[in-house]
Amino acid sequence: MGEQRRTTGARSSVPVLAVGAAVVVLAVLAVLAFVLPGGPDPATARPGETDGAGGAAGSDGAVELRVDGPTSLTYGRVDAALQGFTAYVAGDVGDEARVEVSGVGEPTTLPLSWSGRAHVRPDPALGAGPHEVVATLDTAGGEGDGLRATHAFEVRRAESVVGASFIRPPTTRDTGLLLVAPFVRGLDVTPPQPDATVSVKVYLGTDSVWSSGTLPVTADGTVVVRVPVLRAGDYRLAVGYGGSANLEPGATVRGLRVR
Predict the structure, then answer these.
(1) Which of 133, 176, 196, 202 fits a disulfide with 170 by CB distance 3.0 to 4.6 angstroms?
(2) Which phi and psi angles does 23 have, rounded to 5°?
(3) How does DSSP classify residue 142?
(4) Which burial class, exposed, middle or buried, applies to 15 when counting CB atoms under 10 A from its CB (0-12, 13-18, 19+)?
(5) What pLDDT is stored for residue 188 in this prediction?
(6) What pLDDT does 36 receive?
(7) Could you say which residues of the chain have pLDDT below 50?
(8) DSSP-assigned letter for residue 73
């Protein structure tokens, strides 16, 4: 009987040991979570502290302000419903508080919703490159007045599509006119392209028979290329677009039969 009691006691100590080990592990994890470096909580960040997305939140101890939103957008493809920036205000700032927002187009002043939020949509014509949303709280001299928060983001160049169609195809006796129009499907804006160029090469089989050289894109974003008289045959036209500050380079190939 005594041996049986000893065996039972040994077995009952197993769950006790497991519970003790779990407590030790949890304690170690809690210490690590406190000691290891990490980003500040956006809701309680103090002036100059980052919000984890290349920006900074602001606080005066009673009121906090931060800005959230995407860190990357594509030029001309701003979905107004999904791709915007939101300023969040925590604290008692009164019903008349406003948030002044700049860096995403024309500066604007927005009221706060009942939940302390103000949403702003970026201008789709915002040029490619790095940008920063700047939000400043206006409480008319009350708590949090003048608090400032920022959020960094980048606008990428849009992928271009090159369209090429004949206004008048060339023949064995007459020159032709080829309209080249770099564009982006669904683009919300017409991109200015002061630095963009187009080139056209004509091939018969594998032989290059003519080249337009480099031509500047006009103010309306198109180029009309005069194609020379060609002898009868089946040709390929390779049209290249060099890209611009806001659009990626692109190219297309189209056929031409001259009779």
Answers:
(1) 176
(2) -65, -40
(3) S
(4) exposed
(5) 67
(6) 33
(7) 1-52
(8) E
Pairing of strands 148-156, 72-74: parallel
> What's the maximum distance between 2 C-alpha atoms anywhere in the chain?
118
Read off the tokens for 194.
């002061």
- What's the pLDDT at 57? 81
Residues 6+ away with beta carbon under 8 Å from 135: 65, 67, 87, 99, 100, 101, 118, 148, 149, 150, 151
Compute CA 57 distance to the chain's CA centroid, rounded to the nearest angstrom. 21
Question: Rounded to 5 degrees, what angle do the CA atoms 44, 47, 48 make?
Answer: 115
The rounded distance, in Å, linking the Cα atoms of 115 and 112 is 8
Query: What's the confidence (pLDDT) of residue 148?
Result: 95
How many residues does the structure list for the chain?
Answer: 259
- Tens of pLDDT, residue by residue over 138-164, are 999 999 999 999 999 999 999 889 999
Torsions phi, psi for 4 (to 5 deg): -65, -40
Side chain identity at residue 163, one-letter code: G
User: Quick one: which H or E segment has residue 45?
Assistant: none
CA distance 83 to 151: 14
**What is the rounded distance in angstroms from the CA atom of residue 20 to the CA atom of residue 26?**
10
Q: Which residue is it, tokens 């020159």?
A: 175
The structure's pTM equals: 0.69
